[in-house]
Amino acid sequence: MLIAALVFAALAALIHVYIFVLESLRWTAPATRKTFGTSETDALATKELAFNQGFYNLFLAIVAAAGIIAAAGGHGGVGAALILAGCGSMLLAGLVLLISSPKKARAAAVQLTFPLIAVVLTLLWKLG
């Protein structure tokens, strides 16, 4: 169960690093605007907000990665706590996106699926 939890936490972290790149580094690029469905004008107007939001995603990925490293290093309690904090926050952010913008259900599913699996597997690992 531990290995599966770590794999899904890593996948969740990688997706959130990718989201960081899109939001903080490539927000106004045509391909990114197409991905998020924003016009050039809207992207330029929201560039600062997206830059900041991207870093939130990066920080969640770092927390999950720290949990993976701790758990793999034999510190199961610390690792589980960090994985649950990082992936749990990713999961909840995905739910907020889904609830607040139902038209973005696909994006929300991408954002929350791996974290959900990581949270469930981590709980099964620690409680099982």
Describe, in short, the structure shown.
By secondary structure, the protein is mainly α.
Please describe what this structure looks like.
With 128 residues, this protein is mainly α. It has one domain. The protein contains 6 helices and no strands. Helix 1 packs across helix 5 (76-100). The protein is elongated and about 50 Å long.
Taken as a percent bin, the fraction of beta residues is under 5%
Q: Which regions are unreliable across 5 or more consecutive residues at pLDDT < 50?
A: none
The mean pLDDT is 97
Kindly give the count of domains. 1
Helix coverage percent: over 70%
H/E element string? HHHHHH
Q: Which structural class do you get from the secondary structure elements?
A: mainly alpha
Say how many strands there are.
0
- The first-to-last residue Cα distance is 9 Å
What profile does the largest beta sheet have? none
Overall outline: elongated
Question: Number of DSSP helices?
Answer: 6
> Rounded to an integer, what's the Rg over CA atoms?
15 Å
Any chance you could write out the topology, listing elements then pairs?
Layout: H1 2-25, H2 30-36, H3 40-45, H4 47-72, H5 76-100, H6 105-127
Helix pairs in contact: 1-4, 1-5, 1-6, 4-5, 5-6
Jot down its keywords.
6 helices; single chain; mainly alpha
